[in-house]
Amino acid sequence: MVEWITSDAPVPYDTAVAEMEARADAIARGEAGEAVWLLEHPALYTAGTSAKPADLRQPDRFPVFETRRGGQYTYHGPGQRVAYVMLDLNTRGRDIRRYVEQLETWVIAALAEFNIRGEIRDGRVGVWVDRPEKAPLPDGTPREDKIAAIGVRIRKWVSFHGISINVEPDLSHFDGIVPCGIDGHGVTSLVDLGLPVTMDDLDVALKRGFAEVFGG
After folding, report:
1. Which site among 24, 129, 137, 202 is 20 to 30 Å from 90 CA-CA?
2. Annotated catalytic, 180?
3. How confident is the model over 22-80, as pLDDT tens digits?
4. Annotated catalytic residue: which of 17, 180, 199, 205?
5. Are 145 and 179 in contact (CB under 8 A)?
6. Residue 172 and residue 121: Cα distance in Å, rounded?
7. pLDDT, tens only, 138-160
8. pTM flag (> 0.85)
């Protein structure tokens, strides 16, 4: 059985990474079970392995953490649900692409419980929603906003890092970066879309959909 851990107070990023890596190593040694850790962080930016310095527009706005997860720059902060997923892929097929697809499916299923149609896009990481009420981009491309980010790391075939879903963060905080290297499109949240969803509501949806996607 997967253990669910929920932290009520914001967790410092370096503390979370240290605890997550320790748990992942224990899973790899067979000394601990799989876990999903639900938490929030204080306001900060993280730089993934593909981060481009030019995408950090306001380097002095919040602390910036180098991280060895995949991806580019992301923002974490209050009002955003982070789910760190520590699963033993040795027993789940050793298929990284399938694992990322499962994370995407999990996020989309959780959003669907609030009647939001989340979608993935070729060449763009994360989960997106159409915003037909907004003006299109200058080239005529319909506007889409990102509602969830995905960034994973695998070590000894144990996963860590995971997903983040915007419930009610301060969306202006994303202005300090080019989120995940995608310029032009914007960022949204459940509350920004007009849904009075709480963190607890989202947690219920995530827990309900997890077993259907991951089988445990």
Report:
1. 202
2. yes
3. 999 999 999 999 999 999 999 999 998 888 999 999 999 999 999 888 778 899 999 99
4. 180
5. no
6. 24
7. 888 888 999 999 999 999 999 99
8. yes
